[in-house]
C-alpha cells in the first residue's frame, strides 16, 4: 500500500477591515511614507479592532478554507501563531470547537514566521502516517497585540491577518500534492527575534517584570542577512531533493517580511524577480499568516494558476526556517 500524500484542496483568508497607512504611522512616529516604502516595500497594513483576537481571525479563515474545499469535517486542526489568545490553553482547540468540527485533535505550532511551513509539514506527516485523512492548517496573527506602538523598527512592519488551507490524503502525482519539505533551526540566534519577558525564563529571575519586555523585538540587520541565507539555502536544498530545476519554478511564495529580502532570496536562487509573489505592500508582515495570505492574493489576481510549480520558503524566530513545494491545483480561494 502506497503512502498517502497531503494534497491542497482548499484556501481561505481573513483580514481585519481597518487599514493603517504609512501616513497614519508617520503622524506619531519619527518616520515617513518614503522611509517605510524604501526599506520594507510596505504601503499599508491591517489591524484588528479592540476585542478581536487571533482565534477570531483563525475561525474566519478556517470557515472560508473549508468552504473552498467544499468539506465540513477534518481529522486534525493545526494553528500556527505567535500571538495565541492565551499562553494556556492553546488556541487551536477553541478554533476547532467554534468551527463545529467536534472533538478532533488540535494543537498550536509556535515557529513564528516559519510557523505555517512547519504546520504544513506536521499536517503532511499526520496524513502520511494515516493519523488523519484531512487536516485544516491555519496561520493566524494579531501582531498588533505584541508590537510597541512607539517602536518604529517594528510598528511599521507588522500587520494582522489569517490564512488557512485544507489538506487531504491523496497521491504524489496529483496537482496540489506537497512534494517535499526542508526545515531547520538555530537556537544560538534566538535573541534576534524574541519577546524578552512573559515566560518562565523571566519569571525564574525572581525580579519584577519590566513592562517593556512584553513587547516583540527584532534585530533588523542580522535578521535580514540570516533570512536571505537560510531561505535561499533551504529552498535550494528542497529543489535538489525533488528534482526541480530552478528555471522550472513558476512562482516563488516567500514569507512576506520585506520586499528586499524576497528579491534577494529570488536572486540567490536564480528565480526571476517577477516570479516572486508579493502582497506585503498591502498587508505588511503577518508572520505565520503571510504565506497563505500571499497565496490567496495571488489566486485572486490571477498570478497563481493550475499547473504552476510553486516554491514556498520562510524564516522566523527561533531562529527557524523551512521550505515546501507543490504543483498548484485548480481551486477557488475564498
Features:
single chain, Peroxisomal Thiolase, Chain A, domain 1, 11 helices, alpha/beta, about 325 residues, five-stranded mixed β-sheet, about 25% strand, four-stranded mixed β-sheet, globular, 13 strands, about 35% helix, 2 domains
Notes on the structure:
- The chain has eleven helices and 13 strands.
- The chain is an alpha/beta fold.
- The protein has two domains: 5-170, Peroxisomal Thiolase, Chain A, domain 1 (3-Layer(aba) Sandwich); 178-327, 3-Layer(aba) Sandwich (Peroxisomal Thiolase, Chain A, domain 1).
- A hairpin with a 3-residue loop joins strand 12 (309-316) and strand 13 (320-327).
- The relative contact order is 0.20.
Outline the low-pLDDT stretches: none
Please state roughly what percent of the residues sit in beta strands, choosing from under 5%, 5-15%, 15-25%, 25-35%, 35-45% or over 45%. Answer: 15-25%
Helix share, percent? 25-40%
Number of domains: 2
Number of strands: 13
- The CATH architecture of the largest domain would be 3-Layer(aba) Sandwich
Discrete helix count: 11
Which structural class is indicated by helix and strand composition?
alpha/beta
Strand order of the largest sheet: 1-7-6-4-5
Main beta sheet, described?
A: 5 strands, mixed
State the CATH class of the largest domain: Alpha Beta
What overall geometry do the principal axes of the alpha carbons give? globular
Radius of gyration, rounded? Answer: 19 Å
User: How many angstroms does the end-to-end distance come to?
Assistant: 35 Å
Quick one: CATH superfamily of the largest domain? Thiolase/Chalcone synthase
Q: What fold name stands as the CATH topology of the largest domain?
A: Peroxisomal Thiolase, Chain A, domain 1
Mean pLDDT: 96
Order of helices and strands: EEHHEHEHEHEHEEEHEHEHHHEE
Amino acid at each position: 500500500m502506497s503512502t498517502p500524500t497531503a494534497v491542497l484542496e482548499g484556501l481561505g483568508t481573513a483580514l481585519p477591515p481597518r487599514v493603517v497607512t504609512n501616513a497614519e504611522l508617520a503622524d506619531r512616529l519619527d518616520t515617513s511614507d518614503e522611509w517605510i516604502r524604501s526599506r520594507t516595500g510596505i504601503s499599508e497594513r491591517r489591524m484588528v479592532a479592540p476585542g478581536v483576537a487571533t482565534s477570531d481571525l483563525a475561525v474566519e479563515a478556517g470557515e472560508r478554507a473549508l468552504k473552498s474545499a467544499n468539506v465540513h469535517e477534518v481529522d486534525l486542526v493545526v494553528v500556527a501563531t505567535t500571538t495565541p489568545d492565551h499562553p494556556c490553553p492553546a488556541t487551536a482547540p477553541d478554533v476547532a470547537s467554534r468551527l463545529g468540527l467536534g472533538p478532533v485533535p488540535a494543537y498550536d505550532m509556535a515557529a513564528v514566521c516559519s510557523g505555517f511551513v512547519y504546520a504544513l509539514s506536521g499536517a503532511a506527516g499526520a496524513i502520511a502516517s494515516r493519523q488523519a485523512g484531512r487536516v485544516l492548517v491555519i496561520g493566524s496573527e494579531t501582531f498588533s497585540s505584541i508590537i510597541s506602538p512607539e517602536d518604529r523598527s517594528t510598528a511599521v512592519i507588522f500587520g494582522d491577518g489569517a490564512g488557512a488551507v485544507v489538506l487531504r490524503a491523496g497521491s504524489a502525482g496529483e496537482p496540489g500534492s506537497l512534494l517535499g519539505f526542508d526545515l531547520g533551526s538555530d537556537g544560538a540566534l534566538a535573541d534576534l527575534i524574541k519577546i524578552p519577558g512573559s515566560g518562565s525564563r523571566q519569571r525564574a529571575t525572581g525580579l519584577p517584570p519590566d513592562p517593556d519586555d512584553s513587547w516583540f523585538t527584532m534585530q533588523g540587520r542580522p535578521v535580514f542577512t540570516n533570512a536571505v541565507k537560510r531561505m535561499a539555502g533551504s529552498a535550494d536544498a528542497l529543489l535538489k531533493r525533488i528534482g526541480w530545476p530552478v528555471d522550472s519554478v513558476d512562482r516563488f511564495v516567500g514569507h512576506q517580511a520585506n520586499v528586499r529580502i524576497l528579491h534577494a532570496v529570488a536572486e540567490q536562487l536564480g528565480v526571476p524577480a517577477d516570479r516572486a509573489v508579493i502582497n506585503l505592500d498591502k498587508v505588511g508582515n503577518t508572520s505565520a499568516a503571510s504565506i497563505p495570505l500571499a497565496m490567496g492574493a495571488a489566486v485572486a489576481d490571477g498570478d497563481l494558476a493550475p499547473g504552476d510549480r510553486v516554491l514556498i520558503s520562510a524564516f522566523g524566530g527561533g531562529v527557524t526556517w523551512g521550505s515546501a513545494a507543490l504543483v498548484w491545483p485548480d481551486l477557488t480561494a475564498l
